[in-house]
Specification:
The structure holds two protein chains of two kinds. Chain A contains 15 helices and six strands. Chain A is mainly alpha-helical. Chain A has a three-stranded antiparallel β-sheet. Chain A has a three-stranded antiparallel β-sheet with strand order 4-5-6. The longest helix of chain A is centred in the N-terminal third of the chain and has 29 residues. The radius of gyration of chain A is 21 Å and the shape is globular. Chain B is mainly alpha-helical. The N and C termini of chain B lie far apart (about 45 Å). Classes of the chains: A mainly alpha, B mainly alpha. At the A-B interface, strand 1, helix 4, helix 5, helix 7 and helix 14 of A face helix 5, helix 9, helix 11 and helix 12 of B.
Chain lengths: ~375, ~325
């Protein structure tokens, strides 16, 4: 048994008080899966926090090195299982980069649509659970109602509702079903009205403000130094979004804004994700309306065998920068080395910094604001 | 003999059973109303529209295994749920459901004082339950419960004093009669007090947004983490019985108790066809609904925020209200 946190210290002289070591998780309703956080508490104030991860480590990276290039798509689904389509996207694009395959424009558009739908679904889950952690349980039911629409759209597209296996190296396995684009547009209209509902319940709510304002403040410099990405980084005012900085799929053809925070607290991160809903809807509208005709699969050899070399390819997943580092030896039909830069994992590093000095009740709010999926943290 | 023992005992038996049955249906009502608020149906499987859920739930709880943790303080662990349920039931003895002796068990002239003191005892069940579990989450919860108690109880009691000043009596029946004489519900004479008492009631019953000792998402159930089966159910019953108590007190002290609306207006006398206890239960029901409604809407306060609210907002307002009431009483 390794020591994960310093032993509790004696803190009070007059009252003979000790610190308390509290084990939060891996079985805890608010650690979003099997995260274990060991807290050292002075009363309810957090003196130190340490994350223990690895409870659902499945060795996905090693598994990928033993599968051929087409089979890996399916394994990427299992990492961030609430945003499987973005995981697919990152992987297939990395391989395409390695093979220098031309992907048809229609396929890139549909990939963008899928990725943005996925962002909405993932943010719905985040919003619901984050609000639930802070005690507002109705938001969860509302946001899951909208997530259901997205899952229905995915089901219609590829038959699966959670782990889609929806992309292939060189394009897409399927074109969209008839009328699907109309239904995406209809969903955009619905989603826009529902966002107001969430805002009404939370944004100006005194209690919500009290629970999120100035909680877990992190400066832009610190956030960069810690390697944060996605909304937690942008919440601190650092403009970094892979969709803008290193455009992939069809993002360079669309207009959208990157919301930035000013204070770097939990409330800013909340506002940013809400704004991302709106920007996703904006991208979806442009993508569906401008959807070009053509094939959805590029010219790819039957046996995928990228030339020897290595590549790193990031995409903006709902959680942040999801990167794939892939090495091919040019001879075998499986990668020589497969490594993922998971945004959840990198963001989770900040938990200790964010928690210090706050109360136990804030720890759950902070785990929520980081937006982690343990499947991706542990892989 | 008949008047001193038999009738009161019968009344107590009816009252206790009525309260416990009401509690089980209150749980059902909560699940239903929450369901409607959250765009779902709530329980639908047991009986028509899930009505029998109210009966099936207690049966399930009775049949569940009753676990006492090995390191728990066994006596206190057993006593704690009882200590939290009994006061909640005892309070009903002084709550009049109507003007006749048939409708109340005891008519004591310090009724309000009795209610305040007995409801305060209830929190000991929570504190001791958390302490005796010998586990960290319940311990934190019981610390929170004690901190919470002192931050709202003072404000609530002081607010109630201003109502007593207005009514001129501590007797519960007297307070209702005073509202008849004033021709106005105290909710309109003492609106600040009404709101404060209701909010304090939310804190008293550990309901959202003040459910800090329970806080499923932080303390995994808080004080009752280590409880299971019927002992857990006793805590549960106590919480919901307390909700009924608070609703009953608010309805009685601020909304005219068993009286119909506008009791002094002759033109509305046809409303007297409805028996007084029905009026009263209807008013209680309204506040129960608000309790559930609030739970479906608000996030949870942090416990330092609750204490700040109690000490820095409620107590000054309560004192101000008391002083104003006193001045008004002297001047008018």
């Amino acid at each position: 048994m390794t020591k994960v946190i310093d032993a509790p210290r004696r803190i009070g002289q007059a009252f003979d008080t000790d610190e308390l070591v509290l084990n939060m998780g891996p079985q805890h309703p608010s650690t979003h899966g099997v995260l274990r956080v060991v807290l050292r508490l002075d009363g309810e104030r957090v003196v130190d926090a340490d994350c223990v991860i690895g409870y659902i480590h499945r060795g996905v990276e090693k598994l990928c090195e033993n599968r051929d290039w087409t089979q890996i798509v399916l394994l990427t689904d299992r990492m961030d299982y609430v945003a499987a389509a973005t995981s697919n996207l990152g992987y297939v694009e990395a391989v395409e980069k390695l093979m220098q395959v031309e992907v048809p424009r229609r396929a890139r558009y549909i990939r963008t649509i899928l990725a943005e739908l996925q962002r909405i679904a993932s943010h719905c889950l985040w919003l619901g659970t984050h609000a639930m952690d802070i005690g507002a349980m109705t938001v969860l039911l509302y946001s899951f109602r909208e997530r259901e629409f997205v899952l229905d759209l995915f089901e219609e597209y590829c038959g699966a509702r959670l782990t889609y296996n929806s992309m292939r190296v060189g394009g897409l396995p399927l074109d969209i079903p008839t009328g699907w684009d109309k239904r995406v547009l209809a969903f955009c209209d619905v989603m826009e009205t529902k966002l107001d509902e969430y805002e009404e319940l939370l944004t100006n709510n005194r209690i919500w403000l009290g629970r999120t304002r100035d909680i877990g403040v992190i400066s832009g410099e610190d956030a960069t130094a810690l390697g944060l990405c996605g909304p937690p980084l942008r919440g601190s005012g650092v403009s970094r979004d892979v969709r803008k900085d290193e455009p992939n799929a069809a993002y360079e053809e669309f207009e959208f804004d990157i919301p930035l925070g000013t204070r770097g607290d939990t409330y800013d991160r909340y506002l940013i994700r809400l704004e991302e809903f709106k920007q996703s809807i904006r991208i979806l509208r442009q993508a569906v309306e401008g959807l070009p005709e053509g094939p959805v699969m590029g010219k790819v050899p039957r046996l995928i065998k990228p030339p020897a070399g290595e590549t790193y390819h990031p995409v903006e997943s709902p959680k942040g920068e999801l990167g794939y580092f892939i090495v091919s030896d040019g001879r075998s039909t499986n990668p020589y080395r497969f490594r993922v830069r998971p945004p959840s994992f990198c963001n989770l590093q900040a938990l200790n910094r964010l928690c210090k000095g706050h109360l136990v009740a804030d720890v759950v709010a902070l785990i929520g604001t980081i937006d982690i999926v343990l499947g991706e943290v542990d892989r | 003999m008949l008047d001193t023992f038999v009738i009161p005992l019968l009344q107590i038996a009816v009252l206790v059973n009525a309260v416990l049955v009401a509690v089980t249906f209150l749980v059902l009502m909560e699940r239903k109303v929450m369901g409607w608020a959250q765009a779902r149906l709530g329980p639908m499987r047991v009986g028509p529209y899930g009505i029998l859920q109210a009966i099936v739930d207690p049966i399930k709880l009775i049949l569940k295994e009753d676990i006492t943790p090995a390191k728990a303080d066994k006596w206190v662990f057993t006593l704690a749920p009882i200590m939290s349920l009994v006061p909640a039931l005892v309070v009903f003895s002084v709550i009049p459901f109507g003007p006749d002796p048939l409708y109340y068990v005891a008519d004591i002239n310090v009724g309000l004082l009795f209610i305040i003191s007995v409801t305060s005892i209830g929190v000991y069940g929570i504190i001791l339950g958390g302490w005796s579990s010998n586990s960290k989450y319940p311990l934190l919860a019981s610390l929170r419960a004690s901190a919470q108690l002192i931050s709202y109880e003072i404000a609530v009691v002081m607010t109630l004093v201003s109502v007593v000043l207005t009514a001129g009596t501590l007797n519960m029946i007297g307070i209702v009669e005073a509202q008849r004489e004033a021709g106005l519900w105290f909710a309109f004479i003492q609106p600040v007090a009404c709101v404060l008492v209701f909010i304090g009631g939310l804190a008293e019953t550990n309901r959202l947004p003040f459910d800090l000792p329970e806080a499923e998402t932080e303390l995994t159930g808080g004080f009752h983490t280590e409880y299971s089966g019927m002992r857990w159910a006793l805590f549960f019953l106590a919480e919901y019985a307390n909700i009924i108590v608070i609703s009953a007190i608010v309805a009685l002290m601020f909304f005219g108790g068993w009286m119909r609306p506008f009791p002094n207006v002759e033109a509305l006398s046809f409303l007297d066809l409805v028996p007084p206890w029905v009026w009263y239960c209807g008013k209680i029901f309204f506040f129960l609904y608000i309790f559930v409604w609030i739970r479906a809407t608000f996030p949870r306060y942090r416990y330092d925020q609750l204490m700040a609210l109690g000490w820095k907002v409620f107590i000054p307002i309560a004192i101000g209200n008391l002083v104003l009431t006193g001045i008004a009483k002297v001047v008018l």
